[in-house]
Automatic annotation (TrEMBL):
The keyword Heme does not apply. This is IBR domain-containing protein. It comes from Elaeophora elaphi. The chain crosses the membrane at residues 134-158, 164-183, 195-211, 217-236. Gene3D superfamilies: 1.20.120.1750. Keywords: Membrane, Transmembrane, Transmembrane helix.
Length: 300
């Protein structure tokens, strides 16, 4: 392999130009530097390279080069988890993303890359939920549509009790917890000692619970209509005509599944991914054709 480079070349093309592909410095060589070349000239364990560049700088450049290579391979459609910085590619239809790192599990918005644990982030802002997010949210509607009316009536006391009695209690407990969690995170970022963070949480929690009482009572304005709506759906589903119509819809969904149309989400996503990969290949070919070697020519 006759490709040759130096830590200085890597410094320019990686740090200044953000290049994932680095050409050979030899004027007569049309090839690009292979990955093992980059690993060799930026090897953190090679003490002989200290005369060209410090080890910390080589480690930084090698990290940047690998990051640029990943971005280039996926066409730049990559986001980092705001908490653990793990890399994620675009998943068509999913804008409300959760990090799969078991020690992180941070939820964030794919559009703006901001951490968020609530769907309220997508209300009244530039960020919108994807079609797959909306499909997952509609599971309650599917449950109401395909469940027998008699079963809905049986569940009616449990649902009404949960919404009207336990709903406000849940707000009364979780709202102070979320506020205290935000305050604790802010204090940790400010470098406060753990005992101060714990003391603040213990002292403020009763106060936050008192503040949350109006919100818990106000939640009934939403929970009572939800309970009434469930009751209305359960009664309507007991009417034979409506029940038969829902049975027909269920039969049609089963028939569509028999012919493979129940996998429409997978079909749409695979079609989108194929088109995206085709666009990335075209972009890579255009990048290859448009690049020149003025910098390397003057170095040779």
């Amino acid at each position: 392999m006759h490709s040759r480079t130096s830590p200085g070349d890597s410094l320019y093309w990686i740090e200044n130009e953000n290049k994932a592909r680095i050409k050979c410095a030899k004027r007569t060589c049309p090839k690009r530097i292979h990955e093992n070349d980059i690993d060799a000239v930026l090897d953190p364990e090679n003490d002989e390279l200290e005369i060209f560049m410090k080890r910390s700088k080589r480690e930084y450049l090698l990290h940047e080069h690998r990051k640029h290579s990943i971005y280039y391979a996926f066409g730049g459609l990559i986001q980092r988890c705001p908490l653990c910085k793990a890399l994620y590619t675009e998943y068509d239809g999913c804008n409300f993303v959760q990090c799969v790192n078991v020690r992180c599990k941070q939820r964030f918005c794919w559009v703006c890359n901001e951490p968020t644990d609530s769907l309220q982030h997508f209300a009244g802002r530039g960020c919108k939920l994807g079609w797959d997010d909306l499909f997952k949210i509609c599971f309650i509607l599917k449950f109401l549509a395909f469940t027998e009316g008699c079963l809905l009536v049986i569940f009616l006391p449990i649902v009404s009790t949960t919404l009207i009695y336990f709903g406000p209690l849940l707000v009364l407990i979780t709202l102070p917890y979320q506020i205290i969690s935000l305050l604790r995170e802010c204090m940790r970022r400010l470098g406060q000692p753990p005992w101060a963070v714990t003391a603040l949480a213990v002292s403020l929690y009763p106060i936050m619970m008192l503040v949350s009482v109006p919100f818990a009572i106000g939640s009934l304005l939403f929970l009572i209509p939800m309970s009434v709506a469930y009751c209305a759906v359960a009664i309507i589903k007991c009417i034979p005509a409506f029940s038969r119509a829902c049975d027909i819809l269920y039969f049609l969904s089963m028939l569509a599944g028999f012919f493979g149309f129940d996998q429409w989400r997978t079909i749409l996503r695979e079609n989108y991914e194929a088109n995206r990969q085709r666009d990335i290949e075209i972009a890579h070919q255009e990048a290859e054709l448009s690049e020149s070697l003025p910098f390397f020519s003057c170095m040779s």
